[in-house]
Write a structure and sequence with these properties.
Layout (H helix, E strand, L loop, with lengths): L1 H18 L4 H25 L14
Length: 62
């Protein structure tokens, strides 16, 4: 799960940089990189799949 989180953090970081960028070409490159990181995160999430359900606790016997 570590890589998934790192990918998303990097995407957010790049999007924040792009938001303040005046050069439209560089801004587009930053947003493209952010999209690539989000795509990697989505792929990693698909590979991990949903977490297994938790095992319910057995009720105490009377």
């Amino acid at each position: 799960m570590k890589l998934l989180t790192e990918y998303l953090e990097r995407a957010v970081s790049l999007e924040k940089l792009a938001a303040g960028e005046q050069d439209s070409t560089f801004k587009t490159e930053l947003l493209n990189q952010a999209a690539a990181y989000r795509k990697l995160a989505a792929k990693r999430a698909m590979e991990y799949g949903p977490p297994p359900p938790s095992v319910p606790e057995k009720p105490p016997h009377p």
